[in-house]
Structure formats: C-alpha cells, structure tokens
Amino acid sequence: MITGILTPDYGHISINGRDLLNDTINAKLEMGYVPDNHAIYEKLKGIEYLNFMADMYGVDNIKRQERIIHFLKMFNMTNAANDIIKSYSHGMKQKICVIGALLHEPKLWILDEPLTGLDPQSSFMLKQQMREHCDKGNTVFFSSHVLEVVEKLCDRIAIIDKGRLIDVGTIEQIKSRGDDSLEQYFLKLTAQGESV
Predict the structure, then answer these.
(1) I need a labelling partner for 73 at 20 to 30 A (CA). Which of 62, 83, 108, 168 fits?
(2) Contact 43/31 with Cβ under 8 angstroms?
(3) Exposure on the CB side of residue 66, measured as CA atoms within 13 A
(4) Within the chain, what is the greatest distance between any pair of CA atoms?
(5) What is the DSSP letter of 163?
(6) Phi-psi bin for 169: left (phi > 0), alpha (psi -120 to 50), beta?
(7) What residue ranges do the domains of the chain occupy?
(8) Interatomic CA distance for residues 48 and 70, integer angstroms
(9) Which residues on adjacent β-strands are paired with residue 45?
(10) Number of H helices, E strands in the chain
(11) 59 vs 108: CA distance, rounded Å
C-alpha cells in the first residue's frame, strides 16, 4: 500500500507530507523501492537502466553521474555497468535495483529482502547505508527473514505472521517481554498462532 501497488480500504497514506492518493507522483518521488523479484528491464545495460531511473526521478546530469559512479564503486559494479542486465547474477541484479532506487536520494527507502543474494561486502555496505540514512532523520522500511540483522539494525520492528501484524515495538520493548533474542520471541509468537 505504501508503494501504491495496493489501494487501502480505508485511511490514508502520507509520505513526507505528500498524500499518496491525491498527490501520487510527488508522494512516489519521496520513496525508493526495491522489490524482491528484480522487476527490471533485463535487455538494458546496467548503465542504461540507471540513467532511465535517474530520468524517471528527475535527477540532473551532474548529480546523476556523481551518484552513479559512487554507488557502482560502492557495490563493486563498475566493470559490469556496460553489460546487459540479463547476463547479471542474482546478486548483481539486486545491486542494480538498489542503486536505481537510491539515485534520487529519497527520504523513504522501502526494501523487500534487500540483502538476499548480496555478497558479504555489498551486504555490509547496504546495511551501513541504511543505518546512515536513518541517522540523518530519514526512514528505511525493510522486510527480512534474517532476524539477527533486524535485531542489530532496526530501531523499531513489526512482526507479521500469515499476513497479520502480531507485535510492534522497539528492540528494547521486545526484549523487555522476557526473551533473549528477537528470534526466540518470534518463534514463541508464531508457535502460539498455530495453536489458535
């Protein structure tokens, strides 16, 4: 719903003061979205895809070149930028999607399983970028099945089981409920759900 893929049944969604339903384009300019399925144009070269994304978000030529060079170097993709995306590995497709979503420096990042398929160095760099983005007062909203990463990285978490929100809070609040780790708490909550 936040990305505009699904329409809410009720209520409204506001992104950085922009109403998603009534000011859709400006609201979407405030976010960068990385889906879990690499919905990208595989017949383009990596650099063509990045320039397309920069065009979509109105990134001027000087900033675009700086950011493209910066992110390609960060994610060790410089040598692959002129290759067709279809030839990329799963991890390379993940990296090019991440770069494309971040080029316009959105305030809100929505990342669906962003670390899947990344090599350890790229995974570390993305986690570092996520933390720095939040430290600047922005938001990173991401999903993950890797609970150790969630526990180390997140300020607030939401636990979802079978499409239902079953708990939400800070790591401190979750830990105060008597469990040693987020993983143990998650397993306890979801096991209770199965017996209901």
Answers:
(1) 108
(2) no
(3) 7
(4) 58
(5) T
(6) left
(7) 14-143, 155-196
(8) 16
(9) 84
(10) 8, 7
(11) 16
At 54, list the tokens.
């920069």
Q: What is the DSSP letter of 167?
A: E
State both tokens at 20.
């998603």
- Measured CA to CA, the distance from residue 43 to residue 87 in angstroms comes to 9
Q: What are phi and psi of 156, to 5 degrees?
A: -135, 150
Q: What is the pLDDT along the chain (196 residues), one digit of tens a residue?
A: 899 888 888 998 999 999 999 999 999 999 999 998 877 899 999 999 999 999 999 999 999 999 999 999 999 999 999 999 999 999 999 999 999 999 999 999 999 999 988 999 999 999 999 999 999 999 999 999 888 888 888 989 998 888 888 889 998 888 787 667 788 888 888 886 554 3
Single-letter code of the amino acid located at 130: M
- Report the candidate in 163, 146, 162 with the shortest Cα–Cα distance to residue 154: 146
What's the CA gap between 49 and 70, in Å, rounded? 16
The CATH fold assigned to 14-143 is Rossmann fold (3.40.50)
